[in-house]
Predict the structure.
Amino acid sequence: MNSQGSRSLSLYLHIPFCKTRCSYCAFNTYTQFDHLVDRFVDALCEEIRLTGAGANGYQVHTIFFGGGTPSLLTHGQFERLFGALATSYTLLPDAEITIEANPNDLDRAYLAPLRRMGVNRLSIGMQSSSEMELRLFDRRHDNEAVVRAVDAARGAGFDNLNLDLIFGVPQQTMATWEASLRQMLALQPDHTSLYALSLEEGTSMHNWVERGKLPAPDDDLAADMYDLATDMLAAAGYGQYEISNWCKPGHECRHNLQYWYNEPYLGLGPGAHGFANGVRYSVIRSPQRYIAALLPQAEEHSAAAFPLTPAVDEAVTLERDDEIAETLIMWLRLTHEGVDRARFARRFGVDLVHLHRSLIDRFTHDGLLQVDETSVRLTDRGRMLSNVVFRELV
Ligand code: SF4
């Protein structure tokens, strides 16, 4: 809640289209759906309008276009979306507006108009500097494309860039991982996210491992890779503020912080998830069904209770205990600041340490949590065993 009595809100817009499918990807995204994109943008504008109609009392301080591949959208499609956002929501003048992008899509001609439309943060899927690994991932870019994309982004005026890398992948070695980290650091991003591979059923990579074409990921090697990254990033002046995220001072991703504080955010677009007004919900996954739900022929939608729309697939109103448990699990991921006890008490009316005294005493005694007057944080050991802590808190 700010001084005007408004709550800050974050918007996630899911663009569920990609040119090709990466071998490790389990996101809700589709290839060869070019014919649907324009109708999808109309539907997304409608979803923006419907949710915005119930969002009085909220001010939008972050917008994140994720996917999928948002950088497949044209300038005209982004203009329509920004038009709908501006007329439907109160956007704060300093709102953080991020677009996830494939390096191959980025040049000055594409980026400069986006910057003028208000996009002020780019998240570029670098993933690796090894050509062999990029081929294994079925990525459609090479390392040179990343270098050109970063150069184009800086040239277009972006001073807030994120680069993503993946580790713990079959056939990846400490040497290739170190080379990827060095190359990423040489490009001087303002923020970096390092994701451990999660081998998901239904992906090509999962099938290759199942059929013995690839070795299974090595968890011990992945842990060593994480340690190496932690050391190299600290030495390069990047602060770690979340389990998988590092940045230069002042470049924390405000959008992701909203998730980690479990503050209200709307997920718009097929398969997106949201949490606002005490309701956790997910949107229809299929782009065709999503479009059909939002663009019925010549039919006016009546307003549903915020944040629901005709495109919502499932919704549940959270009990207070569930909201507390979910909030703790997310908030403890903020490794540096941990859970701010005063902020927690303002929100839930109870001091965290009183609420979970026996559990917190045990985890403190076991060296997993660190507690002081202002915060409760995971220790380094607690970070490695965070699943144990999170499981017991639920
Ligand atoms: S570009 Fe991203 S969303 Fe698309 S298939 Fe690859 S990993 Fe998945």
Q: What stands out?
A: Residues 18, 21-22, 25, 27, 29, 67-69, 102, 125 surround iron/sulfur cluster (CB under 6 Å).
